[in-house]
Write a structure and sequence with these properties.
five-stranded mixed β-sheet; alpha/beta; D-Maltodextrin-Binding Protein, domain 2; binds arginine; globular
Length: 261
């Protein structure tokens, strides 16, 4: 009998511990934002016009201004954490920030670990090639090529054959940002770079004599803000974002941050 009681109490203690643990894990994001007095945004600030470093090393860009508006609505400060793009989804899921705003494409794979807001930008992957290239024109021309990408991006997935099928790429060279990938291209280390539309256009504009963009896009993608699964921030984020889409703010921000590059 005593043994039975001991087992029962052990089970009860374990059950209670589990419940406490689970409820900690499910702590409301809204409450945590209010408690901390700040909204923490994870990003990778090497992706103009969406996020890049300003003259004083501060992170600026379209996503930062969007998140700033959301923070204002929440009545808190915005804190931006600049990190490797490849680690953002895991960092968000494990509670290192409240949102990820990083020109991030909505994907099935990411939806397994995070939620997404409404889409705020339509984008696509583009190929950057040497200015004198005449042979790389479509995805079929990826065969046997060395492709430079930013690690963990949809461009990486595309080149690796995990987005739209296998194109028989010879090698994928992964860099921590698209500028590094493009530098490798200019140094002859790869045959082309695959990167999102607007960052690609800016990189080409800055290196016009040596690089050019292939006109045909490879994909069609939507950017959205990522949140933890089940986050109670989603209502406010979607409301603010939708307002900024409808009244043209998002478009204006894109023009503003493209012009300063
Ligand atoms: N849209 C691409 C993706 O979601 C690339 C995003 C890169 N963003 C950045 N801030 N570096 O994979």
């Amino acid at each position: 009998m005593k043994k039975f009681v001991r087992i029962i109490s052990l089970v009860t203690v374990l059950a209670l511990a589990c419940m406490i643990f689970a409820s900690c894990g499910k702590k409301s994001d809204l409450a945590s934002v209010e408690e901390e007095g700040k909204l923490i945004m994870l990003t990778n600030a090497a992706f103009p016009p969406f996020e890049y470093l300003g003259e004083n090393g501060e992170t600026i860009g379209v996503d930062v201004e969007i998140a700033q508006k959301i923070a204002e609505r929440l009545g808190v400060e915005l804190e931006v954490v600049d990190m490797d793009f490849n680690g953002i989804v895991a960092a968000l899921a494990s509670g290192k920030g409240h949102i990820a705003a990083a020109g991030m494409t909505v994907s099935e794979e990411r939806l397994k670990s995070v939620d997404f807001s409404v889409n705020y930008v339509t984008s696509a992957q583009y190929m950057i090639v040497p200015a004198d290239n005449t042979t790389i024109l479509t995805s079929a021309d990826l065969k046997d090529k060395v492709v430079g990408v930013q690690e963990g991006t949809t461009g990486d997935l595309y080149a690796s054959g995990e987005w739209d099928g296998d194109f028989g790429v010879k090698q994928v060279l992964r860099f921590s940002n698209a500028v590094e990938a493009s530098t490798a291209l200019m140094n002859g280390k790869c045959d082309l770079v695959i990167v999102d539309e607007l960052p690609a256009k800016l990189i080409v504009a800055q290196n016009e004599s040596v690089l050019k963009l292939v006109d045909t896009p490879l994909t069609l993608e939507d950017y959205a803000i990522a949140m933890r699964k089940g986050s109670d921030l989603s209502k406010i984020i979607n409301e603010e974002l939708q307002k900024m889409i409808d009244d043209g703010t998002v478009e204006d921000l894109i023009l503003k941050h493209t012009a300063v590059q």
